[in-house]
Specification:
heterodimer, A: 868 residues, alpha+beta, Four Helix Bundle (Hemerythrin (Met), subunit A), Heat Shock Protein 90, 6 domains, 6-stranded mixed β-sheet, B: 153 residues, OB fold (Dihydrolipoamide Acetyltransferase, E2P), 5-stranded mixed β-sheet, 5 helices, 17% helix, globular, disordered C terminus
Chain lengths: 868, 153
């Protein structure tokens, strides 16, 4: 492109950005002649240059806009309508500039629509009363031909000359002081800066890195010679180099205000469009950060400011009704903290709609209803960041806040930043972003794996764990998947050499190693490496285009010793691990919740094979641990397979004849524990852990199998754990402290979910009860009316038709059954529900899946019954 | 000395890989260096020998032997690299040895024989008949074009 043209495009774009901002200021402060003068000057320059370069479309547009603004200067009132029109014109000019930059010529097209609008506006905004009397002889200056677009009539020009130096006849500007300082700052910085191509800066950066390396080598040499005359000068060189490096880094820095520049205009347009009055405050616009980072956060920030103005702030009438000022406020602020920049976007609007977010989280299965009740408000607010929480399709229907925040969070994650939200109902929302100042120099952990060194960005490293066989932290395996037990959490592990395909096979089975615990967004995992060296500030260099397709690396760098090493991309590793289950579970855990376990919601199931090729599954929540033991450790005692496990003998139970206990190699086991006792189910192979809605479609005749369900598209047998427990310990459900029942109680179980009925019945039977199970409260009442007697009733709470509370009331209401103890069994355990249960007369309230709690409650109730 | 001869004379940096002599147009050659502290890049395509630091720049080394399908590493002792640049990125072409610079009359350049190994033909910009041996002119851009070859293969 022609140099002249390129410079014109760059400069004009910058001028237009200023005009954008200034116009919005002018609209709010129409009497400020300084602002208007500034705008006028800029537009005039654009017009002039266009004429010079032969760009008729631009010239005509700029001219029409200038004419209208001339009227403002003459004292016409700057109506919002007129300003909108000028802004529209500026947008059109920008469009033309864009295509000018691409195609090096003005695009075809006509701007008559805008120009005629502008002309009409010029006629409408007649200057107030005092006619502008021109003094002098005008006749002699009349041109002999009609004016061409872009030309100014001579008398108008004359008038401009006469009037320009004179202050317009408008009242004194109300706040001239701040306006002047702004003006001064802009003009000063304009004079003191020069344009340097980014390439030159990058080259400079490269040279400085090289200088740093050379200095390091020199330092190394001098260190070996105690008394060297080079010592002094080298120290100075070292200091200068460090300063130089810092200086060059600074040239890449830009004020964050550059990213904010468009906001006044956006907010202004939104406020006109939505009929809201919005003040935009910006603090710390001069705070600097790397231009690369700046580019990356521009869009997320814009999105959030839009969100605040659009969804966060109420209409003026609503605001006044709520006792607030009619003008809403959006405040942006930025400041440095450590190696980060903190950016806050706050509004004084209605705050996040907690109830709506909660309802949506439940609807999306992110949390079960009873778990949701236990969450604090701020925990609920965090749901807006969960991937997929709001999608584009739903934007129109969701008028609560948080639209697209998951996307914002994702963008912030990518550059190693964090985002947090605070919301107070009726007082507003504030988002806080913590962004690294630069991506060019990052602190990285240098590790070794398979003989190669790699850098892992420190920002995503949470902690380091030394794993050793037999120690507190040891690597365990579910089939071939390695995991680490870390503070009650299972952390998925991956060996770096395996991820990179450089393992030799020898190290796979060793359980020694360093585990770098990495967090990417909501996902945590451990990367196993051979050695960890130190942390180093590395200069990130882009990878060669021949290597850029490798997702595991984000770049490469030159270390202090001159070697090139690859930088691991935690995002790439997370994708390679690629387990959505992990991230879902991690997301749930980060909110201090257990995965949802309601029957209607997804249940975590462990899928395995035992005895046949048929897939089998068991709810993961019932399993205490997954173990893989050395088959040689299995002993045969009294005809039963046993293994020494945690200083106790643990019986092994096979599912059926088909399952053989292995003679050698690793034997996978599912361990079930209850109090101090454990038993293990022998399986052939652990296949997977899946999240699925459990819907048993075909009931089973076989002992030990509840029925079949479709899991991940395959027919899978759901195992009845209750059947196997007594096989290990005949008294599994009757503990030593529990006297063997002389007269086993009879029990009425009411649950609409066949799964729970099927699972609990054998468990309760095994505990010595006679169980009658029904699928609804009305069936249960019918049985009671028929005169059937039970020692105790267990009922689900949430059921279609009559729910558990109503059932309990009905039971209490009938004198024949008033004494029947009723135990509520529910996934909905909240203080409120428990209280309501007490009122309607539940004897006890037990959480679903709390098998021990249920047995204990039953025992208590039936014992009371027997004693009575 | 006539102008005409000068125009036709082109200079080539010669290099050997295995027993074959290659020539690179001197205008494309930045420097010749002995690769040190090479870092291998896991998951990269097989032709990439690794990356190294050459005076502050990160250079990607292409193993010409592998690229041309000339078989495993010969134990030819020290290998050398010819530094070239393409689209602003630095590359090194790893060869067994680098020889002298030859001035050759471009008129003597012959097209590839039809039966030339397709992998060599893919990067060859013609053949010069020298005394005693043949010199294959390497087209630098085509050597660096790893992607297309993979699709073609």
């Amino acid at each position: 492109m022609d140099d002249l043209l390129r410079e014109f495009v760059t400069e004009t774009n910058e001028s237009l950005d200023v005009v954008d901002v200034e116009l919005v200021r002018f609209e709010q402060d129409p009497n400020n002649a300084k602002i208007l003068g500034n705008i006028f000057r800029l537009v005039h320059t654009i017009k002039g240059t266009c004429g010079f370069l032969g760009l008729p479309r631009l010239e005509a547009l700029a001219h029409a806009a200038e004419t209208l603004m001339g009227k403002f200067r003459d004292g016409a009132r700057a109506t919002s309508e007129a300003v909108t029109l000028v802004l529209a014109t500026i947008d059109r000019i920008k469009e033309i500039l864009e295509s000018l930059e691409r195609e090096q010529r003005e695009p075809e097209g006509s701007d008559d629509d805008l120009i005629s609008d502008l002309k009409r506006m010029v006629e409408r905004v007649v200057a107030p009363a005092a006619p502008q009397m021109t003094v002098g002889t005008l006749t002699s200056q009349v041109l002999e031909r009609p004016l061409r677009p872009g030309e100014v009539s001579l008398d108008e020009l004359e008038r401009a000359f006469r009037e320009t130096p004179v202050e317009p006849q408008t009242p004194k500007p109300s706040k001239p002081v701040p306006a002047e300082t702004v003006e001064d700052e802009t003009s000063r910085s304009a004079n003191q800066s020069i344009r340097v191509p980014v390439d030159s800066l990058e080259r400079l950066m490269t040279m400085v890195s090289e200088l740093v390396l050379t200095r390091n080598q020199l330092l190394e040499i001098v260190r070996r010679h105690e008394e060297s005359e080079f010592k002094g000068p080298l120290q100075r060189l070292s200091n200068v180099t460090a300063e130089l490096q810092e200086g060059v880094m600074k040239t890449r820095m830009q004020p964050i205000g550059n990213a904010w520049q468009k906001f006044p205009r956006i907010v202004r347009d939104l406020s006109t469009e939505l009929g809201k009055q919005i003040d935009l405050e910006m603090q710390g616009a001069e705070t600097e950060l790397d231009r690369q980072v700046l580019d990356l956060i521009k869009d997320p920030l814009t999105h959030m400011v839009r969100n605040s103005a659009d969804h966060g702030l109420e209409l003026p009438s609503e605001r006044r009704a709520a006792g607030k000022s009619g003008r809403g406020r959006v405040r942006l602020s930025a400041y440095h903290e450590g190696g980060h920049i903190i950016i806050q976007i706050a509004d004084d609007g209605r705050g996040l709609n907690t109830a709506r977010i909660k309802a949506k989280a439940i609807a999306q299965g992110l949390v079960s209803e009873d778990d949701a009740d236990k969450l604090t408000e701020s925990q609920i607010h965090k749901f807006i960041f969960v991937p997929g929480f709001s999608t584009a399709a739903e934007v129109t229907s969701v008028s609560g806040r948080g639209v697209g925040m998951d996307v914002v969070r994702n963008n912030i994650d990518q550059i190693g930043g964090t985002i947090d939200v605070k919301s107070v109902a009726g007082q507003g929302v504030s988002f806080t972003l913590k962004i690294p100042l630069t991506l060019a120099i990052v602190a990285a952990l240098i590790v070794e794996a398979g003989g190669d060194r790699f850098a892992i960005p420190q920002l995503s490293v949470v902690e380091l764990v030394r794993a050793r066989g037999g120690s507190e932290h040891r690597i365990e395996r579910i089939k071939d998947t390695a995991v680490l037990r870390l503070r009650d959490k299972l952390l998925p592990l991956a060996r770096l050499t395996t991820l990179l395909g450089t393992d030799t096979g020898a190290d796979i089975k060793t359980d020694d190693g360093f585990i770098v615990v990495v967090q990417v967004g909501s996902q945590s995992f451990g990367v196993v490496v051979d050695a960890v060296f130190h942390t180093e500030e590395i200069v990130v260099k882009p990878m060669s285009s021949k290597l850029r397709h490798i997702p595991m690396f984000s770049g490469n760098t030159i270390l202090g010793d001159g070697a090139v090493i690859m930088i691991i991309d935690p995002n790439g590793v997370a994708r390679a691990l690629g387990s959505t289950v992990t991230s879902q579970m991690a997301a749930a855990e980060s909110l201090n919740m257990k995965p949802a376990v309601a029957s209607e919601a997804a249940t975590s199931l462990l899928v395995f094979r035992a005895g046949s090729a048929q897939l089998k599954a068991v709810p993961l929540s019932l399993i205490t641990r997954l173990e893989e033991i050395d088959a040689r450790k299995i002993e045969l005692s009294n005809g039963r397979h046993m293994v020494q496990y945690r200083d106790q003998l643990m019986p092994l139970v096979t599912m059926d004849e088909g399952v053989r206990v292995k003679g050698e190699g690793a034997q996978p086991l599912l361990v079930f524990s209850d109090g101090s006792r454990s038993m293990a189910l022998v399986v052939d192979e652990i296949v997977d852990i899946v999240e699925e809605r459990l819907d048993i479609q075909v009931a089973s005749e076989n002992d030990g199998v509840l029925g079949s369900a479709i899991i991940k598209g395959q027919a899978t047998e759901i195992i009845d754990v209750g059947h196997f427990l007594p096989l290990a310990f005949a008294d599994w459900f009757r503990r030593k402290e529990q006297p063997v029942r002389a007269a086993p109680g009879s029990l009425l179980l009411i649950d609409d979910s066949p799964f729970f009925r099927n699972m609990l019945t054998p468990v309760l039977q095994a505990a010595g009860y006679q169980v009658t199970s029904v699928g609804s409260a009305s069936e249960a009442l019918a049985l009671l009316k028929d005169g059937r007697t039970f020692d105790v009733a267990i009922t689900d709470i949430e059921m279609p038709g009559m729910d558990g509370f109503q059932f309990a009331e009905a039971v209490r209401g009938d004198p024949r059954t008033a004494e029947l103890p009723v135990i509520a069994l529910s996934s909905m355990v909240s203080a409120e529900a428990v209280e309501r249960g007490r009122v309607v007369g539940f004897h006890d309230y037990v959480a679903k899946f709390d098998r021990q709690g249920l047995i204990a409650a039953l025992k208590e109730q039936t014992d009371i019954g027997h004693a009575a | 000395m006539t102008e005409k001869t000068n125009e036709n004379l082109k200079e080539f940096v010669t290099a050997t890989v295995g027993s074959q002599l290659f020539g690179l147009p001197i205008l494309r050659v930045q420097d010749v260096f002995a690769p040190e502290r090479l870092t291998r890049v896991p998951l990269a395509s097989a032709e990439i020998a690794g990356v190294l630091n050459l005076r502050g720049r990160i250079v990607t080394l292409i193993d010409v032997r592998h690229r041309l399908g000339l078989g495993g590493r010969g134990d030819a002792g020290h290998s050398m690299a010819i530094g070239v640049e393409a689209l602003g990125e630095s590359y090194g072409l790893l060869v067994d040895s680098v020889g002298e610079v030859l001035k050759l009359d471009d008129a003597g350049r012959e097209p590839n024989p039809v039966n030339l190994d397709p992998r060599i033909a893919a990067v060859s910009g013609g053949i010069f008949r020298l005394e005693g041996q043949l010199l294959v002119v390497i087209d630098v851009d085509r050597v660096l074009d790893l992607g297309t070859r993979e699709i073609a293969a």
